[in-house]
Structure formats: C-alpha cells, structure tokens
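In response to reviewer comment 3 from the previous cycle, which asked for concrete evidence that the modeling workflow produces usable outputs, we include below a single protein chain processed end to end. The sequence was submitted unchanged, and the resulting structure tokens are shown without manual editing.
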Amino acid sequence: MTPATPRPQWSLRHELTRILLFTALLPALLSVVTLLWSQWESEHASLSVRLDANARMTANGIDDFLEGQLAGVRLMAEQARPDGAPPAFDLPHLLRIYPAMLRVLHLDAGGRVVAGIDARGRSIPVGSMSAAGSNWFRSARAQRRPRIADVYRSPFQGHEIVTVVSAPLNGARGFEGVLAASVPVESFARLNSDNLSRRNLELLLLDTANVVVYADPDLRWKVLDDTGRVGTRLRAGARQVVSPARPLEVDGLLRGPGSAFVEAVAMRNGWVLVLVAPKQNLLAPFLPRLGLLAALVVATTFGVLFAAWRMRRLLSANMMRLLASLHGYALGGRLDPAQLSRMPEELQPLAGGIGELAARMNAAFDELRRVLDQREQVIAERTESLRQAVHDLDRLSRTDALTGSLNYRGFLETADRLWREARAAGQPLAVLALDIDHFKRYNDLYGHAEGDGALRRFAGAVSSALLHADDVLARPGGEEFIVFLPGSTLEQAMKVGARVCQRVRDADIVHAAAPEGRMTVSIGVAAMQAGDDEAEGMLRRADAALYRAKAAGRNRACD
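The workflow returned the following structure tokens.
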C-alpha cells in the first residue's frame, strides 16, 4: 500500500497576523468614517433648523418694529381735519410715543419743510431744507401710500444711517405733502445683532436695492455698500415658506477667508434678512474629534503591527518555556493523539498542559469571582460619590462666580423653565431688565478690580429688594442683570423695580463719574402677555423699556 500523504501543517503565526490586521483595522476605519459622517449630518441639520428659526424670528421682530413706526406716522397723517384747512400735527406727541424716531417732518407738496422737530425737542425751521430730490419723497408723491424707504445717511443727524417711514397727505386738492419720520438703523438692528452674536451668527440686512442696511463687523461689507451679484443671489434664495431647508453655502461673505452657511428670508417691506454662520464654526467641533480619531487609528495600526511582530517572536522563543511551566502544574493525563494532529503546529506542545490546568483554573476562577464581588461593591460606592460630585459641578456651571447670581446659561434655562411653568399654571410672570448707569465710566475711573467689587455690592443690593423666595436674579453678562418675578403682575413688578432703584441708591456706592455721585440703575419692566409664544417677546419688551428708562434720564424704572 502506498503510504498516506501527511496533511500539510499550517502556521498559527501567519494566520493570526492576517486575522488581527483585518479584524482590528477595518472595523476601526469604518467606525471612524461612520461616526464623523453621522455627526456632520446631525450638526448640519441642527444648523439648518437654528438658522431658519433665528432668521424668521429676527425678520418678524424687525418687520413688526418698522410697521409699528409706520403705523404711528400713518395714523397721524390720516387724522381728520376740515376741508381746505391747513394740516397741523402734534409732532412732539408722535416723538413721545415712538422714542426710536430721530426726527419728524411735515413737508408740503414741493418737499419743503412746513414743520419739524428732532428727538432733542429742537424745532426745524420752516423752509430750512427740501426733500424734493430724495427717493423716498418722490416715491411717496408718485405712489401716494405709506411706505418704508431704503436706508441712507442723514446729514441732519450727525450722518446717522436711517430709514424713513412716510405717509402721504391726500386732501381734497390731491397730494398735499408728506409726513415722514427718520428711524435709525441702530435702534432695531443692534439688539438683534447682539442676541445673534451670542449664538455665533452674523446679521446682514439688505434693502430693496441690495444695499447693506446693517452688517456685523465680521462680514465683508459696511453699511450702504452695494452687495452686487452676491446680494442678487441672496435675494433669489430668500424664502417665505415655513419649513426649513438646507442652508446655502456662499463664498465671499466674510471679511476673512472661508465660506459660510446662510439663511435668507424675505421681509414684508421688501428687504432681505440674511443670517450667516461661518463654516469654520461648524467644522471647529470636528477638528479635535478628527485628530483624536486619526490618532486612535494610527495607534491601533501600530499596536496591531507591534502585537503581530511580538507574537511571532514570542510564540517561537517562549514555546518550550511555557510548556515546561504547564507540566509543572500537571496532575497527569494527556490529550488524544488524533486531536493533537489536527491542531496548529505551534500549539501541539501546549495541548497536554492545558488539560492538566483545568482543575486549578476552576479554583482560581472561584477566588477571582469572590474578589470581583468585593470590587463591585467598592465601585458602586465610588460611583455614587462621583454622581454627587457631577451634580455639584452642574450646579456651579449655572452660577456666576463673581456675584453668586445665575450666569448666562442659568439665565437661559431659568427663563425657559419659568415661562413654561407660568403658562401651564396660568400664573403671571414679570421680568426686570437692569443696566448699571455709566458702569464703563466706573471701570475707567476706578479699575476693574473695584468694578468687580461694585458688581458684588450691586447684586447684594438688588437681592435685598426681592421679597419672594422664588424671585430669581441672573447676570447674563457685564453690567446687565435680569430679575424674574414669578407670580407678579406688571404693577407689582413696577413696585419691585422702584424698590430696587432705591436699594441701589441706599447702597451708596460712590461713582464720581455719574451725575448722582453714586451708582444708580436703569430698569425696564415687562410682564407676560396673552399673545406671547415664548419668553423672548417678554425679554424684548423689557429691553425696550430699559431703553426708554435710559432715554428718560436713567436712575428709574419704566414699563
């Protein structure tokens, strides 16, 4: 008989090297790519929703503000008067109602001044100026309807950038003139820009001619710049639908290099509001992750290669040493020779020792289980301690370290929580917007160290004026503070505002650069209204009331 051909033996070292490289590197690479792609899509979708929501909220706010100014001018222009009698308008009354206006003019049919007054109460001489050549006057004369004009630089208010809201005077003899008010762009753009900048968003406003109404400093344009083809593209992409879409990616918007994601919304007056999110802000969170994941892949690759190399060396060099150690624990007995012949050549010398170690391994396993049970108890105790530490850290992350009041994060969370609780319970909610008068002068005069001390004393004075345990003091930033008054009406909040003003004065914080000689505070008061959909509307009214308090001479509370 021909002897059987022996089965060729295969090398465990080669097979393990191939399997190790395949099973370790390929899943790692696939996991990294999948994770990065998933996070990118998630961040992109979140950005789309955030851009759409902020763009529409800001556009509606600016539209409502301008239409409110236009409504006041239109109502005064339409006031009844006897036929043929010359119109006479109470222009100071209009300025008192709408403090954002810089100047109100009554112009005749030829564009000459009939009467006028500016925000400081100074009358504009009759015939001292003519608006006959202005685009807004020609449009009012031709269209004979109230309108909001595009922006221009006013030479009569220190070259301030303004828009004109105008209403024609249509009488029995036809067109008799125009009633117009100048509204500075800063009055409705700056606050929205500051709120958006806290969300890493840039604001760009374009009028009907694609001329810049307002642009944040990080954008490439300034006010009154012509945006050209870029503005035309943004206007073409402006949407009026409600559902958010993927934002456009546009080059050439930023002052520096790089592209940006934009959301353009068509406003009711024909302007276009554009929110800009620099692409680098979206990429920034990924760069550390990408670097970390790349480092992990490289480390995994080198680890696998090193393990394979080391395994090949150790498997041969230490085989006899391991075999001798195994036989030292043996109690007797061997494996079936047929089974030995089917094992890899590297493991055949070890097979006999594995069977002899089984009993001892069981005993060792029982001991190990006992030790693990003890360790699990220790781990549970330490986990509870860590959970308490995390809770304490979370509380500290919402607290302003300087004044002990809520910081910006705590302010946002508290505003949302109190708003929802008040709406659910049908209870009133009021808010005070506080701004320390002339605080920049204080820092310039006494230094920031003294300024920090004054802020602490100020916060203590405000806290002492709050009588309810659930009243909340927050410091969103700088010298700005917010007080939430759950369960308080507007009238009650006005009393609290007056008490806060008095407590700050009683604190007698010396301020030589202030008119009073001591630190005072201006307060805007607002309360939740039935038509509000979110706390942002109440906070905007409080900011507007704060503006009125400052305009009225500071050191007071206004609603």
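Residues 402 and 452 are 7 Å apart (CA to CA). We consider this sufficient to address the reviewer's concern, and the full set will be provided in the supplementary archive.
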